[in-house]
Every structure is written in C-alpha cells, then in structure tokens.
Amino acid sequence: MNMLLPALLLGATIPAIAQSAAPAATVWTDHRRALPDPLRRVPVGLQLWHTPNPNYPEPDPAQPGHFLWKHSTMVRNDTGQELEIVACGSFIWYSEAGWQANLTETPAEFAELFNCPRGRLKPGATYTFAKNYRYASSARSLYGGDALWYILAKDASGKLYKGLGLIETEADVLGK
C-alpha cells in the first residue's frame, strides 16, 4: 500500500485526455480480478452510488443535436471518523479492452463538485455531485459503457479507504 498512494497521486497529475488514451493494461493488469489495480487491497469505508442507474441519454435542450446522460453521484462516509479526500475519478469499460483510466479529480475539485468543504468527509454525512453529466455531440457518438467511479480518502493516521460505484450508461435514447 505504500506504493499505491504515490502512484495515485502521480496519476492525478496526468490530464484526463492522456489517461483515456492509455492502454487498459496500465490500470488493469490482472484480468482474473474485477477491479483496476489502484483500487485493490484498499478497505471499503465509503458508500458511493449513482442515480438514476442505469442511465439513458436524452436530447440536450441547450444544444440541438447533442445528447446528455443526466445523473447524480453520492458518497457517504461510513467509517465513524472524519476522512480527507485523497483522490476521486473513474475508470471506463466500453470495449473488450476492459477497464481504462477515464478521469481524475483533485481533492479541491472534489470539494467543489460534491459541495464538501475542504474535502473532508464527516462521518455519516452524504455529499452529492448533483450534475455529474456525460455528453455526446451527436447521435453518432452515442455509445453504452460502464463507469466505475472511485473515491479514496484517509483518516487522521493515514489509513486509506475507498468507495466504489458502478454506473451503466446506455446508448439507447428513451422514447425513440
């Protein structure tokens, strides 16, 4: 675990564009295991979920011809102690290649998006990223895939905890 935290912090500095182009092997080396490498062997202390899930695209009224998947992401600290955000992001699975790095958020970005002052998770409190939307610029760019969101946070002694939440995003526009 001593190597995990520096690797995650290093990964947090890589732009999301570069991460999404990285081969799956860089984040998911053991295909006999379900989780990407950075999320294995870290105890669960956070509950993370998305709603609605599964999620379907709908026309974007602000941009004709564009689409969006509207969903919210919530996290709750179940450890009984205050935790400090270390990393937040997601891995995506949309092809046979498996998990690929998608995006990362800094603790400051997490604090803003989840309305969580100073990136500190109070015990039992739920924090919400209300407009965690996915966008498509045209009907041709609609595709289904799964996103595994994760949050890593540490307690006062430095012990690391994780929360995981899978969201299914579908390609079919409802009502069509």
TrEMBL record:
<feature type="signal peptide">
    <location>
        <begin position="1"/>
        <end position="18"/>
    </location>
</feature>
<keyword id="KW-0732">Signal</keyword>
<protein>
    <recommendedName>
        <fullName>Gliding motility-associated lipoprotein GldH</fullName>
    </recommendedName>
</protein>
